[in-house]
Amino acid sequence: xxxxxxxxxxxxxxxxxxxxxxxxxxxxxxxxxxxxxxxxxxxxxxxxxxxxxxxxxxxxxxxxxxxxxxxxxxxxxxxxxxxxxxxxxxxxxxxxxxxxxxxxxxxxxxxxxxxxxxxxxxxxxxxxxxxxxxxxxxxxxxxxxxxxxxxxxxxxxxxxxxxxxxxxxxxxxxxxxxxxxxxxxxxxxxxxxxxxxxxxxxxxxxxxxxxxxxxxxxxx
Length: 220
Ligand code: MN
Description:
mainly beta
């Protein structure tokens, strides 16, 4: 049963800006989000909405659109669905302290199953993603305990270009990690270490003008 007990234990909601621990579902019940997170180590939190919570995996190298690449994905505690559009700075010293960027968001569709919970318990789940950066068919395969592999299936969206380098910025606000840290009083230097050395031209990365309204993902 997906539960938020572990999430609640790890967080101090009076000290940290992250959303509270309520169970909730979106209209489709099939939200997916990838949050780029510069904590102690840079990683990408890959999350799928299942039965009112976000099942979550930390992917150190981020997703790859190359079907020959298997990306390690460590399952971590379920997160609240409200967490999906959280972007900002978790204070240093708190659990997950560092900068969080919403790297991609959209919906997913299970393949060959109606029951995502059962497929995940069995340790193999095939699905397709409908995001802005990640699309097409994927599989999550458990290798042991909390250790999984995230693999792209060969299809129209396959490429050997590195999507984390081509499209590094927030899908909600176009900001890089360093820009988010700067805007929200985080550690800019530490956050910048998670950005590509040079931001690619025509990557869609544009500095948000001061005072300009942030684009907000239609929440639920
Ligand atoms: Mn994380």
